[in-house]
Structure formats: C-alpha cells, structure tokens
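Write out the 3D structure for:
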Amino acid sequence: MGEQNKFHLGSEAEAATQKSIRALVAHSRKAGKSEPIYLIINTVKPMVRKKDYTPRIIPVTNKIGRLQDKSVLLVTKDPSTPYRHALTEKDSATEDVFNQIYTLTKLKSLAKDPKKLSLMFKEYDLVVSDNRIHKFLPDILGAQFFLKNKKIPFMVQMARPSPESQAQLTKSKSSTKLKDNRCEPKYVYSQMKAIARNTYFIPSAKGTCVSIVIGHTEMETPAIVTNLNDVIGYLVDSKNLPVGGLLRTIENIVSVHVKTSESVSMEIKKEKGIEEKN
C-alpha cells in the first residue's frame, strides 16, 4: 500500500474498521433504515484553547451528501439586495441553491419568538451565513442550534478575496463607511458544494471527544473506510494547520470508535498507556 493510501491507524485497526462498519451497514439495511455513521475520537487534550463555533470542513474522497438534496437558509449582511439578486437570478450558478435568504436584522427579529426559531431549526438542513456576520449568530440563535453541533451555521464568503476587491468598495447613503457588496455566485456555489459533499468537525476547548460523520449506511463499506482514513489524516497532519492538523500526531489519539445514532459504540483503535505518558 502506497504511503498516500496508508491506513493511519495501522493494519489491525483497518481490519477492525472494515468489520465494524460492515456490521453497522448490515444491521441498518436489515432494519430498512439509512443512518449516518459517526467516527468518535477521544483525544489526550482538547484540540483548541478557546470555544469555537465555526464548522471546519474535512475533504473526503467519497461524497456524503448532495447539495440538491439539502434545504438551505442563507443569512446575509444588511441589506440583502446585492446578494439576493446575484444569487437567485435566472441562470446564476446558485439560482436554485437557497430556499430562503434572511438579513441579520430579520434573523434577530425572528429569533425573539422561540416557536418560529424552532420551526426554522426543523425546516432547513443547512444554515449558512456571510463570514462577516457569522460571529453574531451564537448569541442570536441560542442553544438549540448549537446543541450537540447538529445545526451549527457554516460560513461562506460572498466573493473571492483579491487585490482588486479594495477598489470595488462602495458607500451607502446612510454611512460613510466603505462596504464590499460584491457577490460571485460561482464562488459561493463552490463553497456550498464542498459543505454538502464533505464532512466537518467543531473542535472543543473543554472536551476531549469529537464526533464526525464519515458516511451513511447506504454507502459501500470500502467508501466509508476510506473516508474514515481521510478524516484521521486531516486531523493528525500538521500541514493542514490551522484549520486541520490539530492533533499533529496519532499519539494524541486515545481511542477511536464507530457507531450509528442507534447502535452501540464499536471500538476500532485504542492506544494503551497513552494516559500514563501524558
């Protein structure tokens, strides 16, 4: 096996991974269900020092989802007109991507009503926001969206950063501040496609356990195993810093399990004595 295809957890763990995932897939299919398969990683120490509400995309070989299957809410800066027009006009790359577009002001208003917020939580598969306002969402949306990391909003950039972008800043009638109202649908679409097809994680500043979707039970076992290996490699390879590479080495992993939401957790790797070394 070539170095780039090397199973990061070792050959014994690879065999255990294949066996465990086959069992999860078989059980789910027998029950007539499609379930996500989670990779549970226990680490020596927390991955980051500060609380992080930003989902970090992990590229995987085999796609986990499709953008066309997702209902998507986009939250933009005020006003939304420059973005709404560009993103939804006919023949735009994002013409059919967003089911709803809210401004930050509208989201604040809606969030005052717990019932409306609850309906919004259930209605959309993905919530994404302009990266410039993403930092305000935890306080606005509250615990429901951030509980167990199930609906944490992703960030998108409305336009590709470039040296020429400074020259395209504009002033509004009510403010003397220069604003970047550029919107590039093709660039937004590429980000949305990456969010939908890949997986993600949110590093915890307190805990030493992270749960990451690596596939679903309708996928073939080899594809899920490959995705698992992609995830481990992304987390331990320091070349992926600062977004990935947070573990830096396999030795910072205490144990690894796989499971579905309804199955028992199946251990595929345990580092003996790692607690004593640290």
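The CA atoms of residues 52 and 127 lie 17 Å apart.
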